[in-house]
Amino acid sequence: MNYLVVGEPCVDLIHKENGEVIHSYGGVLYSIISLAVLAGNNDSVFPLMNLGEDEYDNITNILKSYPKIKLDGVNKVEHPTKKVHLYISNYRSGKKAKIEHSDAVTYTLSYDHIEKFLPLADAMLINMISGVDISLDTLKKIRANFKGLIHMDIHNLVMKTNDEGFREHTNLEGWREWCTNTDTIQMNEYEIGVLSREKRNDYEIAEEILINLNRSMTGVIVTKGKLGVSGFTRKEKSFGEVRFFDLDRLDVQAIENPHFVDTTGCGDVFAASFTVDFSKTRDIKKALHYATRIASFKTSVSGIYELHKLK
């Protein structure tokens, strides 16, 4: 199978308590690499992204170490790669621990760039790392012209950056269209809570998407960290002679990892592992259990350099 992955890479700058700054990489790279690790021997992974020239050689060299990753869809652009600052000493202190900023506005990936890869693809993972990775118009064009699986992680679509560089949750304008031009949609518990101004819980959101708006979609997935994951699907039911659609909810418990190291990138790894399994089995229950297990194991490794251990 051929997988397309849309999203933005970033540089993680981890500020330790002793003043040391560790330079690492993150963003969509967690999804790209984990998908390549988990995919079959004959599968290929095509990242579709704009990559800043300041980190182009470093990041492409990392990706080249995975033979399944093909770099045909990576654009080298002038703007610097987004920097994410993590301040370790601020955790549990009441202060902001995570500051994201970029030296220039991120370039949104155009549909023209994506279009030429659609005929060769079987499945697509869209991870909205920056929130402007692609536009809504591009997503709608992809859905109209691509019949393979599309799994999307809402991620930073429901985030905005304030004047101080901090990321804040916000409602998503046009959320119904964003959420109904895919096969499966993924959000965490905080993202689904702020997605809509008028609908405030996961059941109401899933009902709107799967029952009221798009009966061709497969599922809505809500990740909840230590509380596991909830998957919503649509099922036809009957009461007497009346037939109707209703929601089915599957709750999968989190798997506690006794070798816990770090949760960074777990949602991105979950998205990749779900995409791999569901694209092959079309069994959402199995895919949720598989992705939960892989995301749990991810907490025992740190950064992108140990993702090869997921296999």
Summarize it:
By secondary structure, this protein is of the alpha/beta class. It has helices at 29-38, 56-64, 111-115, 136-145, 175-179, 189-194, 202-213, 266-281, 284-298, and strands at residues 2-6, 9-15, 21-27, 44-52, 74-77, 82-87, 98-101, 123-127, 149-153, 159-161, 167-169, 184-188, 219-223, 229-239, 242-252.
N- and C-termini, Cα separation: 18 Å
CATH overall fold name: UDP-N-acetylmuramoyl-L-alanine:D-glutamate ligase
Q: Give the low-confidence spans.
A: none
Instruction: Count structural domains.
Output: 1
What's the CATH architecture? Answer: 3-Layer(aba) Sandwich
**Strands, total number:** 15
Could you give me the name of the CATH homologous superfamily? Ribokinase
Largest sheet: 9 strands, mixed
In what range is the share of β-strand residues? 25-35%
The first-level CATH class name: Alpha Beta
What distinguishing features does this structure have?
UDP-N-acetylmuramoyl-L-alanine:D-glutamate ligase, 28% helix, 9-stranded mixed β-sheet, single chain, globular, alpha/beta, 311 residues, 15 strands
What would you say this structure looks like, in words?
The chain is α/β, with parallel strands linked by helices. It has one domain (2-6, 30-74, 105-310): Ribokinase (UDP-N-acetylmuramoyl-L-alanine:D-glutamate ligase, 3-Layer(aba) Sandwich), CATH 3.40.1190.20. 28% of the residues lie in helices and 29% in strands. The protein has nine helices and 15 strands. The protein has helices at residues 29-38, 56-64, 111-115, 136-145, 175-179, 189-194, 202-213, 266-281, 284-298, and strands at residues 2-6, 9-15, 21-27, 44-52, 74-77, 82-87, 98-101, 123-127, 149-153, 159-161, 167-169, 184-188, 219-223, 229-239, 242-252. Strands 5-4-1-8-9-12-13-14-15 form a nine-stranded mixed sheet, sandwiched between helices. It has a four-stranded mixed sheet with strand order 3-2-6-7.
